[in-house]
Amino acid sequence: MRPLIGIMMRCGKNDAEKSIQYTFEFVRRTILKAGGEPFFLTPPQDIDYFQTKGQDFPDLTEEEKESIHFWLDSINGLFIPGGIKFTEYDRYVLKQARKKKIPVLAVCLGMQLLSCYEKEVELYDVVSSSIQHNSGLDQEYAHTVKIDKNSRLYEIIGKEEIKVNSFHKRCAGENEYYKTVARSDDGVIEALELSGDLFHIGVQWHPEKMYDYDIYAKRLIDAFIEESKWKATILSSIRKERIFTVEESLK
Predict the structure, then answer these.
(1) Among 124, 142, 155, 234, which residue's CB has the most CB atoms within a 10 Å radius?
(2) Residue 12 CA to chain centroid, in angstroms?
(3) Are the CB atoms for 192 and 62 separated by under 8 Å?
(4) End-to-end distance of the chain based on CA atoms, in angstroms?
(5) Is 210 within 8 Å of 140 (Cβ atoms)?
(6) What's the mean pLDDT in 2-26?
(7) Is the pLDDT reported for residue 250 higher than 80?
């Protein structure tokens, strides 16, 4: 059974300068190749997510929160992609994903969202460095990262130092809820993870873009899909038990 992977869409503009919600095609195809079933998640608020400034976003209504809970209860894993900004909607989704024990893989801006969990948004411009952090998505490798050997990320990757791509202008700060488990040589945080059994890993690079040519990116994506399959199995068992209970009560 393919696990249903929720992919949060991102705001942007098309060539006609019209606001859009989008997902990169390589994200969809990587999830499929790894054995997942992509399911695209759009914000429930009737506002222009591209044009609206962060401080101008209205609070989520109870009805909008109910909508978020509905599809979170349907998915088996959550992929939080890169983008230009995140909002209270993104923060609410992450908080509820933790409560519902949904596996999460977050990349680039998604990892920065993890770094802002339960605290004020603190993102920093990338410091002057010989490392090229904003090299573009089409460059296979930009720099190396060093991974903490006492981390789940290391258990998955199996190597202390790897090469990664890089496409970001800002970087994350420390967070007490998510442990820093990888850095680049200039000290920029490159990976965060949640301690314990729940799979919540964020990386500053884009393994979903590297899936076809990099074994370590493939290992990370595959591990996420496997965790999501386990979540799918648990949900399936719960639903079968509920159906059985209802059928028994009707006899």
Answers:
(1) 142
(2) 18
(3) no
(4) 31
(5) yes
(6) 95
(7) no
* CA–CA distance, 87 with 45 (Å, rounded to integer): 11
Residue partners of 8: CB distance under 8 A and separation at least 6: 41, 78, 79, 80, 81, 90, 93, 110
For the chain, count helices (H), then strands (E): 7, 13
Confidence of residue 243 (pLDDT cuts 50, 70, 90): very low
Q: Which amino acid is at 138?
A: D
- Catalogue the active-site residues: 108, 206, 208
Q: Dig out the tokens for 190 from the structure.
A: 């490159």
User: What is the reported pTM?
Assistant: 0.91
What one-letter code names the amino acid at 29? R
Query: How is residue 132 written in tokens?
Result: 């090229």
At position 201, the amino acid (one-letter code) is I
Residue 190 neighbours by CB under 8 Å, 6+ apart: 145, 164, 182, 183, 184, 203, 204, 205
- Cα separation of 8 and 218, whole Å? 20
Per the model's pLDDT, the better-predicted residue between 235 and 249 turns out to be 235
> In the chain, which residue ranges form alpha helices assigned H by DSSP?
25-33, 62-72, 88-99, 109-115, 152-157, 207-210, 215-250
Inform me whether the pLDDT recorded for 245 exceeds 90. Answer: no
